[in-house]
Amino acid sequence: MSDEPEQTRTAGATEQAEPAARSHDFDYHTGPVTLRGSRVPASTTDQRLLDSRGSTEWLHTDPWRVMRIQSEFVEGFGALAELGPAVSVFGSARTEPGTPFYELGTEVGRALVDAGYAVITGGGPGAMEAANRGAIEAGGASVGLGIELPFEQGLNEHVNLGVNFRYFFARKTMFVKYARGFIVLPGGFGTLDELFEAVTLVQTRKVTSFPIVLMGTDYWGGLFDWLRGAVLEAGTVSARDIDLLHLTDDVDEAVRIVVRADEEVTARPPE
User: Fold this and answer.
1) What single DSSP character describes residue 5?
2) Nearest 5 degrees, angle CA 127-CA 130-CA 131?
3) Containing structural domain, residue 29
4) Shared-domain flag, residues 77 and 39
5) DSSP helix/strand/coil, 28
6) Is the Cβ–Cβ distance between 68 and 166 less than 8 Å?
7) Helix 168-177 and helix 62-80: axis angle, to 10°?
8) Through-space distance between the first and last CA atoms of the chain, rounded to whole angstroms
9) For residue range 116-155, what is the model confidence (pLDDT) as tens digits?
10) How many helical (H) and strand (E) elements, i.e. helices and strands, does the chain have?
11) Contact yes or no for 182/211 (Cβ under 8 A)
12) Do 124 and 177 belong together in one domain?
């Protein structure tokens, strides 16, 4: 096997090829990319890697961001791969301790652990903290998937397995990939975003069907009225789409819905 540089062999030279800076009449290969003519660089990839001089703007380029994104998926998959059955719980970061919604979140966390599930939240304060707290108090796995935001304070103290993300889409993948179902507590735009993305993934069969339970009939009732009224009448969703959502005030019922759906999927023969 020849030890000649790749660009020398491609040019078909028998003795010595001219430096890339002087001759561009050959194919220059950099990974899967082929460069010709004026696009052939004047220096090699290794040379640029080992040269400590010059601008650090490369830290903010899209190729470098791709590496950061890749690292977030690798870290997330590695941290959660052996978690076991889990349920993602969403809800407002603004829910105050001692309020009914906070107590509801704590009850949900406890009940899920008692049923054999780990609890996954966004790791923040409010309803997320409540669910994590309930999971810890029940002796279970309490997962927090944090996100880099200017107004967040990091993972709450009731998380015993935490992963922080820069990118929302990497974080969202973890919520779905490692969950057997979603339980949605009262929340705002972020909670609505997670809710409707989950429904869309189930509706379009991008994920194996899993239950989505909304807790709080008074809070979410208006949303269901709107879906069954204006939205259904306009024909932009079907009744079957709306039936993907379950609404209840009963924590035990919410957990039963998750367990029943989980058992149905487990009993289903492989395709």
Assistant:
1) -
2) 90
3) 1-51
4) no
5) strand
6) yes
7) 20
8) 47
9) 999 999 999 999 999 999 999 999 999 999 988 766 567 9
10) 11, 9
11) yes
12) yes
